Amino acid sequence: MTTRPGWMLVAALGGGIALAVPAFAQLSLTPPAEQKPTPHAPAPKPPPPRPAPKAESKAGPKAEPKAEAKSAKPAAAKKDAPAAPIDPNVDAAYGAYQLGYYRTALDLATKRATEQNDPKSMTLIGEIYASGLGIKRNDDKAAEWYGKAADRGDRNAMFALGMMKISGRGGPANRNEGAKLLASSAKLGKPEAAYNLGLLYLEGQVFPQDLKRAAELFKQAADAGNAEAQYALATFYKEGRGVEKNITEATRLLGLAALADNVDAEVEYAIALFNGTGVKKDVPTAIALLNRAARQNSPIAQNRLAHILIEGKGVPVDKIAGFKWHLIAKTAGAGDPDLDARMAELSAEDRKKAEDGARHWFGVR
Questions:
Q1: Which residue in 114, 170, 226, 334 has the most C-beta neighbors within 10 A?
Q2: What residues form DSSP beta bridges with 10?
Q3: What is the spatial distance between Cα 80 and Cα 26, in angstroms, rounded to a whole number?
Q4: What gap in Å lies between CA 147 and CA 181, rounded to an integer?
Q5: What is d(CA 73, CA 69) in angstroms, rounded to the nearest whole number?
Q6: Would you say the C-alpha torsion 298, 301, 307, 313 has a positive or negative sign?
C-alpha cells in the first residue's frame, strides 16, 4: 500500500476499512504496546511550513532552479536578482524564495528580521537553513531562527520547531517540548499542528491516550482542509473510535481527502463508491479512481483494478491488462494467491503479454 503522511488503511472490495497504524504526519511514531500494527515503511521527513500567505502548502517552490536546489552555493546568475518586486505590498524575501533565489531571499529576510524584528522573516530564514536551500543545511541555525519567530507568536515557526524537537533535529529530542509547541500552533489555527497533536493523543505516549481529544483535533485540521486529517477522521467515523460511528460521514471525508490527492483516500473512496457504502453507488467513478491510484503506485488499487479487469466488473474483460496489474501489485507486496492460480490458466501467449506489460511499467525492456 502506498505510504503517505497520515493513516494507513487496508481495504477490500467486498470488505470495509480496517484500522492499521497511525503514523506521525511527517515522523514515524511507535504505536502503543496493545496495538497490533501493520508493517509499513517510515513516513518521509517534513519540509518546514511556509511562513507567508501560502504557508500551508507542503510543496516546495514551483520554479526552483536546478542549479540552486542541489548546490550549497547560489548560482552566479542569481546574484543580481531584484531586491524588491514592483508591487511594494509583496514581501520581497518570500517573492525571491518562490522564484528560487534562495540566497537573495536569505539576505533580504535577514535584513528585515534584524531591522524590523519581523517573525515571518525569521521563519523563512529557519526554513532555508532547515532545507539547505542555496546554502548548506544547518539544523542548529534553523532551530535558532524558528525559536525566535515562535517566541514572537508565529504559528508556522512553532509547528516547524515542534517537529524538529520531536524528531531530534537541531538538538536533543524533546517530545514534551515539541508537543507544547504543536499545541500552541494548533491554537493559532495551524491545521498540520492540530493533526500531529491529534496523533500524539492517539499514540498515548507523550499524553495519556485520548481518542475523543484526538478526534477533536483531527476535526479541527480536517475542517481547515488538511487531507491527512480528513483521512484519519474518516477512519474514526468508520470504526466509531472517539466519535459516534457514522459511515456516511466517513465516506464524505474520504471523498474530500481524495479530492486533495490523498492516494490512500482515493482507494478507500473508490471502494465505497464501488460498493455504494455511505454514498450512492458509482462504478465508473470508482474504477476511474482506482485507475488513478494504481498509476500512483498504490498496490491495493492495482490489486483491486486487476480483479475488476479480469472479472469484467463494470468494464469489458481484459485479462492481459488485469494480470499486468496483478504482477505489478505482487511485486509491491500485494500478493493474491487466487489471481496466481488464475494466471496459471492463461495461454503462454497471453501470459507473456501480461508479463511484458508489467516489465514495461517498471521500465524494463
A1: 226
A2: 18
A3: 36
A4: 10
A5: 10
A6: negative
Say if 126 falls within a structural domain: yes
Tell me, yes or no, if the pTM score tops 0.70.
yes
Distances (CA, A) of 302 to 200, 291, 294, 328, 330: 32, 8, 5, 7, 9
The neighbour count for residue 365, using CB atoms within 10 Å, is: 5
Examine residue 167 and state whether it is found in any structural domain, yes or no. Answer: yes
Query: Which helix (H) or strand (E) segment is 284 a member of?
Result: helix 283-295
Cell of 68: 540552486
CB 141 within 8 A of CB 72: no
Q: Position of cell 487466487?
A: 338
Q: Under a CB-based contact definition with an 8 Å cutoff, are residues 195 and 182 in contact?
A: no
For residue 24, what is the DSSP state? -
| pLDDT digits 0-9 by tens, 79-96 | 334 333 334 334 899 999
Length, in residues, of the chain: 365
Identify residue 76 by its one-letter amino acid code.
Answer: A
Residue 178 included in any domain: yes
Q: Judge whether 10 and 25 are in contact, CB under 8 Å.
A: no
Report how far residue 328's alpha carbon sits from residue 51's, in angstroms, rounded to the nearest whole number.
40
The one-letter code for the residue type at 171 is: G
Query: What's the domain range around 81?
Result: 66-189
| Residues in the chain with pLDDT values less than 70 | 1-90
- Residue 365: the pLDDT is 72
CA angle 95, 97, 101 (to 5 degrees): 105
Of 190, 168, 191, 193, the closest CA to residue 179 belongs to: 193
Nearest to 144 by CA among 117, 171, 166: 171
Is 110 part of any domain? yes
Which CATH number characterizes residue 157's domain? 1.25.40.10
Number of compact structural domains in the chain: 1
Contact 23, 1 (CB under 8 A): no
